[in-house]
Amino acid sequence: MSRAESAGAGAHVVVIGGGLAGIAAALDCAAGGARVTLLEVRRRLGGAAYSFERDGLQIDNGQHVFLRCCVAYRALLVRLGSEHRVALQRRLEIPVLSPGQEPVTLRRGALPAPLHLAGALVRYSRLTLRQRLGAARAALALARLDPLDPALEELTFGEWLARHGQGPDAVDALWDLIALPTLNLPAAQASLALGAFVFRTGLLSGAEAGDIGFHAATLSETIGEPAARALAAAGVEVRLGWRAERLEQTATGMEVHGRSGRGAEGEATDGGDEGGLDGSASRDREGLSGAEALSAEAVIVALPHTRAATLLHALLPEVTARLSRLASSPIVNLHVVYDRPVCELPFAAGVRTPVQYLFDRTAAAGAPAPSQYLAVSLSGADREMGMSVDALRERYLPALAELLPRARQAKVERFLVTREHAATFRAAPGVAALRPAAESAVPGLVLAGSWTDTGWPATLEGAVLSGHTAARVALAAL
């Protein structure tokens, strides 16, 4: 146990938020000897990574993948005892589908970085030979950038790519394959600094770094349920259905005021047969009651940045003002159940199609044979957030049929939509100046979440890293 960790012995730490950041922070504080209480307004743990049941199917709200270089997230899964519920590629391999064309695969080679991607780029027929050579030159230039250079915050990733000879077609067919799912924005809107970080860390730092990891089980089975067991084993008191409403600084630390009750999920899902609305998948509109106050030597706020801003307003107005400018970027997921198998791939990317990424979730969801359940993930989905279920169905079912010939004869048994309007902070230029550090100006008040200054975009890895940092700051302060 480190000096900072031993300093936490006997002190009370309250963690507000039961997502990945809060789970990691609570486990670390408990390991440091602190008495820990974790508060979560929902009736389950996992934050933005959760599952729900609909008509006998176990459905994830979204498709969360990770890379081999996400060592903090992978270590947390080991800590939770759920590492067996994920699968990691032996070698980076991305099947790419386009309308009217044979599938192609981006597959890394065995050479050291950055040569491990040379063969994949040479064989990538979605680009012309000239475009492939230009992309190789741009990748080498990208590898020389320093993501910490403040000048990189003044440009979008797309502007930089254009200056290096990458036209709209090359960006759409190659660069956005990585930028969209990792930054939750297209390159044309994303920060160059974060874009450079993603490509350098995930693809150019080492040959194995970008190998993709998948959740073979549902998110609840992989994160929420194992976290509940691990926190209980660590002695953490978990209070579900507890809404923190106000923070006060006291002579000995902090006081959290809130209300307990059954809690509210706050997640909206719509969908239905023939595009009709089914309503929320798991929303509970019951009110909270029973005002309470908890005293602690330290409080870690591990909420989404939009909710954290409200809670922090009185004590940290400057941070709240920055968070209000941080903005959000949405993700929309389509859940399509066919009456027969239509796709043999476990996942695939789409190019020159509205479909960005699709995943076969048949086994994880428990879909009965012979049906197949495909999930379509749409990042940076500002447009799709405003579309009705009928409009999404009308746009995306034909798009899927263009990519998957067998879908043209199959019957769609279910079509559901999940929307996360504030899925991540908006990774636009200038975002670095808006992301606060874990340590705040108020003694005993610590911040956690993928929106804090982790250096990473809003990813599973960034969330876990923020929780570890918050715990170190809290224990050191004690």
Task: Characterise the protein shown here.
An 8-stranded mixed β-sheet has the order 8-7-17-18-19-16-20-13. It has a 5-stranded parallel β-sheet with strand order 10-2-1-15-21, with helices on one face. Helix content is 33%, strand content 24%. The model is unreliable at 263-286 (pLDDT under 50). The protein is built from 15 helices and 21 strands. The relative contact order is 0.19. The protein has helices at 3-6, 20-31, 71-80, 118-122, 129-143, 157-163, 168-183, 192-204, 219-233, 305-312, 317-326, 362-365, 382-385, 389-403, 460-477; strands at 12-16, 35-40, 51-54, 57-60, 66-67, 86-88, 93-97, 104-107, 212-215, 237-240, 242-249, 254-260, 269-271, 289-296, 298-301, 328-338, 347-350, 357-360, 372-379, 412-425, 445-447. Helix 2 (20-31) packs parallel to helix 15 (460-477), helix 3 (71-80) packs across helix 15 and helix 7 (168-183) crosses helix 8. Strand 11 and strand 12 (254-260) form a beta hairpin.
Q: Assign an overall shape.
A: globular
Number of strands: 21
Question: What is the CATH domain class of the domain at 3-49 and 219-264 and 283-326 and 436-477?
Answer: Alpha Beta
* Discrete helix count: 15
What's the CATH superfamily of the domain at 3-49 and 219-264 and 283-326 and 436-477, by name?
Answer: FAD/NAD(P)-binding domain
Biggest sheet features: 8 strands, mixed
Strand content: 15-25%
- Tell me the strand order in the biggest sheet: 8-7-17-18-19-16-20-13
Mean pLDDT: 92
Helical proportion, percent range:
25-40%
